[in-house]
DNA sequence: TTATTATTTAGATAGTTATCTAATTATCTA
DNA sequence: TAGATAATTAGATAACTATCTAAATAATAA
């Protein structure tokens, strides 16, 4: 996917988006289910989901009226490794 | 130090600051030495160094007219672990 | 078809941030 | 002390972002 690290860090820099990531670790959830745990309006939630999607951190699939969001596990894994590598001190 | 993760991610989200981190992995450098590799004015550099300092990622020590900046290795290590933990999927 | 629910898109706004120029502070040297 | 160099602070500005309300789209149910 070759997502630049800056975009990833920006996506992760918002507290509400961190909570969303945290929620999705337990498994997929509909947008409204996420929203119920976040004290923001649906449009704001939609914006945050969009940022996370564009950073390739999450994906959504529509099922009926709802859209279920889930973590992109492989991307998260990749990012985690990339960050560790970036922060690793060269001796 | 208990630096909130959001602040760390914000600090790391800027390309110029990523370059600074990268440069300092090789060892300490004066502000002007960093600046020569960055195509920004001294005040802008100063701003970025300040952001990184406030995120506890770097420290500066004055030696004569120059201020030498270096990575806070232990903080970087801590942060790296914290990020891995944050991105770790609970089974 | 009409109403209801779920979500997104459009548009506006307030707050934040990256950047610059100009001025200031700190240190060294002649 | 005066001048030069290194870095920061002050102040302005343009771009970006998180948020909201209102409107639009999508899917379901009556």
Describe this structure in words.
The structure is a homodimer of 91-residue chains. Chain A has a single domain (5-85), classed as Winged helix-like DNA-binding domain superfamily/Winged helix DNA-binding domain (Arc Repressor Mutant, subunit A), CATH 1.10.10.10. Helices cover 56% and strands 15% of the residues of chain A. Chain A contains five helices and three strands. Chain A has a three-stranded antiparallel β-sheet. In chain A, a hairpin with a 2-residue loop joins strand 2 and strand 3 (66-71). The first copy, chain A, is elongated, with a radius of gyration of 14 Å. The model of chain A has no long low-confidence stretch (mean pLDDT 94). Chain A binds chain B through residues 5-6, 9-10, 12-15, 18, 21-22, 25-26, 71, 73, 76-77, 79-80, 83-84, 86-90, and chain B through 5-6, 9-10, 12-15, 18, 21-22, 25-26, 71, 73, 76-77, 79-80, 83-84, 86-90. Chain B binds a DNA duplex (30 and 30 nucleotides) through helix 3 and helix 4.
Q: TL;DR of this structure?
A:
2 copies of one chain form a homodimer. Helices cover 56% and strands 15% of the residues of chain A.
Number of strands of chain A: 3
How many separate domains make up the residues of chain A?
1
In terms of structural class, how would the helical and strand content of chain A be classed?
alpha+beta
Strand content of chain A: 15-25%
Give the CATH architecture of chain A: Orthogonal Bundle
- State the distance separating the first and last CA atoms of chain A: 29 Å
């Amino acid at each position: 996917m070759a997502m630049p690290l800056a975009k990833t860090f920006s996506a992760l820099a918002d507290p509400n988006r961190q909570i969303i990531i945290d929620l999705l670790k337990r498994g997929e959830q509909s947008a409204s289910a996420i929203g119920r745990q976040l004290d923001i309006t649906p449009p704001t939630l939609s914006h945050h989901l969009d940022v996370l999607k564009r950073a390739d951190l999450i994906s959504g699939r529509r099922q009926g009226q709802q859209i279920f969001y889930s973590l992109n596990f492989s991307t998260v894994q990749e990012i985690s490794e990339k960050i560790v590598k970036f922060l690793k001190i060269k001796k």
